[in-house]
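Reading a protein record of the kind used here takes little practice once its layout is understood. The fold follows as a row of integers, each naming the local backbone shape at the matching residue. With these conventions in mind, the following record can be read line by line:

_____
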Amino acid sequence: MNFSNYIFRSHSVGNIISVPKPLTPNQAETLEDYRKRQAGKGRPLTENQLKTWHSLEHKHNESQTYKLTDTAKRMCTDLVFEARTGRKSKLETKYFDKGIEKEKDARDLVSEVLGRPFTKDDERRANSWVTGKRDIQDDNLIIDIKTSWSFESFNKHLLDTPNEVYLRQLDCYMDLWNINDSLLCHVLVDTPAKLIDDEIRRLDWKYNITDMNGDVRDEFVADVVELVCNHIFTRKGLEDYCLQSSNVHLEWFMDFNEIPVAERLHMIPHSFDPIRIIQRNECITLAREYMNTIKPINNIIKL
């Protein structure tokens, strides 16, 4: 198979992008000064300065060279095997399950906070480099929604720098739809009951929190309450969950605090930058070239 024109999915393209690290302003200034002195303009370089000059020249060359990381190569290898066999490595996790099941709830939350009735966009677009399907229909803005797994994971997004893979996904959407502005929206909505039940079962497997009748032992009620509160943020969601649960009871949650809807949305603006598209395309070119070198790795030994 030939992968010279392979089209990458927007949500994964960030995993292959690695931008060369430029020289710092001080390093660039020193390099320029040493180049002039080595050419006879100014004092001759000392032995140590010569070593520094050679080192800076090497770093400068490296800063101009794109390379695939080992992680990018592993992803490319998986893509090659999938294409050759006609099979896909489906990633099934509780995080994705929540995002899929709560897609509409998350979109409705964004609509409520921003005061605009957003609708789902089912159109898929592609160009010579990437393909993608955005979350929301809008003529002037790309909105990509990431549904947080828990209160804890949502809070991390408030403190951490934006995930570069997510921003690269937005780059692709802006490129495909010819739109210059985007929003990365981290959303906190109630976790589906089944997934919370799974978490309680995991707690039980680890600490034996239920008795032989399936009831939560008294000494572990506080742990279950903490777990549920990390996944449910509305009073209605809590009541609905306790109503369907056989071993979690509403009276345990006398101190439950509903989190206002506006506090369950974190937005990160991101604008189109043609330089980032050039970086993306450089890395995709490298990835395609690498994919064409991948050979089957299963061994056959003739007996």
Summary: The longest strand covers residues 181-187.
